[in-house]
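This part of the workshop introduces the protein records we will be handling. The question running through the whole workshop is how a given chain folds. To make this concrete, we reproduce a full record directly below:
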Amino acid sequence: MAKKRLPSPEHADTLSLNALRSLVTGLLERSQQAEARLAKLEAHNIQLREENAALRLDNTRLKLENQLLRDEIARLKNLPPRPPFRASGMDKATDSMLGDKQLSKKKPRGPKLDVKRVSRQEILRINAPAGSRFKGYKSVYVRDLVLKAELVHYRRECWVTPDGKTVLAALPAGTIGGYGANLRRLCLMLHAQGQVTTARLTTLLNDIGLDISKRQIVRLLTRQLDGFVAEDAAVLHAGLVSSSYVTVDDTGARHSHNPCYATHIGGPNFTVFRTTKSKSRLNFLSLLRGGYQDYVLNDAAFEYLKERRADAAVTAGLRALEPQRSCNQVPFL
């Protein structure tokens, strides 16, 4: 059926009364038809949304059933089941220290906030034409990086005490084998955070003008790490003390061509990784202790023995044991 052609509304002033009535009636009919089509489309949209929600629910149910079947197959094959949760995304988290909410927001554009930390100021002059008037300076802040190799000659004072002993002035803290602390910081940062190999580190430092070998770089990266070990232990202790909950997980990992286990211990504000050759309960408890090796027989220990229904003779022997605290396992046993 052909659509009824309506008079043009552009010349409504020249239309007759019947033509105006016909125009208004036609517009009303088209408006009612458009509303009917819109209502039909909205109903169809609601139906599609309900079907989409049902399909999503079915998809989730199928994923769970698939995971259960995978776990059952792994159990029958004596394999460890696959964890049902997704990857934590730690690789992405290491790219930035900001939270998810801050990452989603765009950084507002504006003036830099580091202009108060100017390290050097230079005045750039120009040969102005004769008769020109000086109007001051126009400031431009340029950010640059300076990598410079230094060979520092330390002259250490040497004294001989009245009893014949020689006393030397100490070198600056962090000096290892004739190389300073700043060089070691750069090597550690590029190797650990930037994933730069020792060969590329050697090439980079030699190009800058520093005479260093690959073997010496390996020494800087692997020797005298007691400070990092102490800091790592302090992070674990502070996290266990302050966190309201602790999450743990372990997975197989090869280390030095030997099968080992990597254990993750974390909370809302800390994360610690440990690699050991065992995943036993005693090994896990030793990791949770964070380096502490002492044995203590207190009320909590005897309450635990009571809950586990330990032999009364063993409990009485432990109560009579002196001292009640041992520095490690050897004197305790």
